[in-house]
Amino acid sequence: MIRERSKDHFASLPSARQVSSSSATCSRNMLVRNAVRPRSLRSLASSSSPSSSWLLSSPSRPSTTPSSVPPSRGVSSTRPALADGPRPTNTISSDEIAHFSRLSAHWWDPTGEFGLLHRMNPARIEFLKGELLRVEELGGPRWLEGKDVLDVGCGGGIFAESLARLGANTLAIDASGSNVTTAQAHAALDPSLRVVNSPFPSPTSSASSAPPRSNTLEYRHTAAEKLVEEGKTFDVVCAMEVIEHVEDPRGFLECLMQLTKPGGHLLLSTISRTPLARLLTITLAEDVLRLVTPGTHTYHKYLKPSELRDFFVTEKHWTEFETRGCPYDPIAGKWRLLEVGQLGGAGELVNYFAGVRRPLE
Predict the structure, then answer these.
(1) How far apart are CA 340 and CA 330, in angstroms?
(2) 99/241: higher pLDDT
(3) Is residue 245 part of an annotated ligand binding site?
(4) What pLDDT digit, counting tens, does each position of 132-180 carry?
(5) 174 among the known binding-site residues?
(6) What angle, rounded to 10 degrees, do the helices at 158-165 and 177-187 form?
(7) Which end of the chain is less enclosed by CB atoms within 10 A, N or C?
(8) Is residue 234 within 8 Å of residue 255, measured between CB atoms?
(9) 130 is in an annotated binding site
């Protein structure tokens, strides 16, 4: 479901995985994790092979010795010679895909493997609405009416179904075919969802015959890079609990940027690279409490809010960037979306959301 470095972290490191519910889960040995150091975006991309993908790593990973520890990564530092050669055509990790495919049957069990993601969904919606309210007025229960929204790394469709119910024309994609099949099968059970291009019969004929732009929900087994090739763009692009599982974070973010319309919104949720995050999301959640499958997360793939800010604002010159912490309250059994800067930044030491807007052109 789904560490502290300065801007220089991205530019200087050498080359080199959703609690939030959002895109993730598990199987890595604790000795490996403890040996792994954080890595930067530059180092991550530079270690990726041209054929590597951006999304998902195997549930069982080989032991890591200090000599083979991957360097830390950050957002703004990926492939050292980014401008000199083509980037990978796909940022998905085949190991990660295999990991989540094995867990696909559990997506809609709110008390199971993805229970934390189900509980995080209200916070996702709250964050999305808050971002849109910064620039426009929203009214009625279907406040996403008429907007084209992309959910990247949709998993079993927890977030995508909510988007469709709020009125959005929703396209949800995932690199795992079994995840997409699970999402399509579940959506077909709800007659209020206008599901299109699905192999599962809908309870009503209106879904399959729905005309374009009529608040439809479509799932596709594909990668974001393919949508870029097709020239697709969206009012809102979301990647919830995904970036901590990709092989090339810079390439992944640049792909999402291309899919965002001018004036559109790009929203992420992920985990910060801090000792507290490692303690809560890996040591406790995976190794001790087994709330998620061990190996779901990889500490050195976590990104700090400051790293995303440097990438989007300083380097790419996108606007209205903000982050909001989202800690889990185990007593209440819910995630709490904090206000910007609440707790003096301490609220962003583990799970957090980030939103940014593409400038009008």
Answers:
(1) 22
(2) 241
(3) yes
(4) 999 999 989 999 999 999 999 999 999 999 999 999 999 999 999 999 9
(5) yes
(6) 40
(7) C
(8) no
(9) no
Rg (CA), the chain: 19
Q: How many residues does the chain have?
A: 361
To the question of whether residue 341 is assigned a binding role by annotation, the answer is no
User: Computed from CA positions of residues 231, 100, 38, 338, in that sequence, does the dihedral angle turn out positive or negative?
Assistant: positive
Whole-structure pTM value: 0.76
Angle at CA of residue 193, ends 214 and 333, nearest 5°: 125
Structure-token pair, residue 360 = 């009008």
To which residue do tokens 């809908």 refer? 202
Top-confidence residue, 169 or 74 = 169
Torsion angle of alpha carbons 304, 25, 174, 53, nearest 10°?
Answer: 70
In the three-class reduction of DSSP (H, G, I as helix; E, B as strand; rest coil), residue 207 is classed as helix
| Unique residue bearing structure tokens 């295999």 | 98
Residue 148, annotated as binding a ligand: no
Instruction: Tell me the one-letter amino acid at 257.
Output: M
- Per the annotation, does 244 bind a ligand? yes
Question: C-alpha dihedral over 242, 245, 246, 247, to 10 degrees?
Answer: 170
User: Could you write out the DSSP letters of every residue in 59-72?
Assistant: SS-----GGGPPPP
